[in-house]
Structure formats: structure tokens, C-alpha cells
Amino acid sequence: MRSEPTETQVRPGIEADLDTLTAIYNHYVRETAITFDTAVFTPEERRPWLLSHPEDGPHRLMVATDAESQEILGYATSSPYRPKPAYATSVETSVYVAPDSGRRGIGTLLYGALFDALAGEDVHRAYAGIAQPNEASTRLHERFGFAYVGTYREVGRKFGRYWDVAWYEKPL
């Protein structure tokens, strides 16, 4: 039996991860304003999202797992910023950490792996929208070189109130 903490591994997401990734996301749908989705998803409803993040190209899904148990601790994505062709070299990034895995550096590991994977891709800018307030996410993005560009005031309504979203960008 090992006495030291187990290590965390980061790898591309695969279809076998779908149930757990959906459960992590649904936690944020139900409990927080971090995402503006308001209804939980079934894994089958989330399958197109997962399949839109292949192992190569600008749209990635990176998954953090406990090296020993293989439990999924969180995930990070780079997704299309907007659907119009001129936006093709821009991505929107996000990180979701399992509810019981916060404050362990999982987000930092995930973003490190994601930006390493994007280094060889034709991506010019990464954008992140952070529902306010969210100091932990703001610190994470600033640590990775994201700069604040502006706030959309009261842009989303969830849980009976309006939420601001602060936008950040990072050159790649």
C-alpha cells in the first residue's frame, strides 16, 4: 500500500468517459451559474459534444484522472468560438473539475496539457467567459496569460437572477 498521494494523469478524452464527464457537467448545471445551461443532460445528449473534440486539431478534450484508480477528476476543452468561418483560428476554453476534486491543482494540470496540445495547431486566440463572481477561475485564467477584455452585464438569467460574464483572451 502506497503512503504518498497518487499522481494525476492527463490524457485525451474518449467515448468511455462520457457518463462521468456528463455527471461532472450536470453538477455545474444543477448547482452553479458557471454554465448557463439550465437542464441536465443524458450521456446520449452529450455524445455529439464529446465527438466534436477529436484527439487532434484545434478542438480538444483533455481529461485528468487519478493515476491509481483512474477516477476522472475533471476535464478541459477548446471548442469553436463562433460558427462563422472567419472565427476558425479562435477557440473558447473551459475547465470543469469534479466537485470533490477542487483546490488540488487539477485545473492547472488540465490547462497546461490543453495549451501544450494546441501549441502546434493553427489557433491564434483563446477566449474564456467567466460567470461572475468566480475568483478561482479568474486566477486560473490569469495564471495562464489570459487578459481581461470586458464584461457582458446581466447577460444570463439562472436561478432567478441575472449574471455577468467577464471575458478573457489569450494569444496562442
UniProtKB/TrEMBL annotation:
The keyword Transferase applies. The keyword Acyltransferase applies. Keywords: Acyltransferase, Transferase. It is an enzyme of class 2 (transferase). Its EC number is 2.3.-.-. CDD domains: NAT_SF (cd04301). PROSITE patterns: GNAT (PS51186). GO terms for molecular function: acyltransferase activity. InterPro entries: Acyl_CoA_acyltransferase, GNAT_dom. Residues 8-172 form the N-acetyltransferase domain. This is GNAT family N-acetyltransferase. It comes from Streptomyces olivaceoviridis.
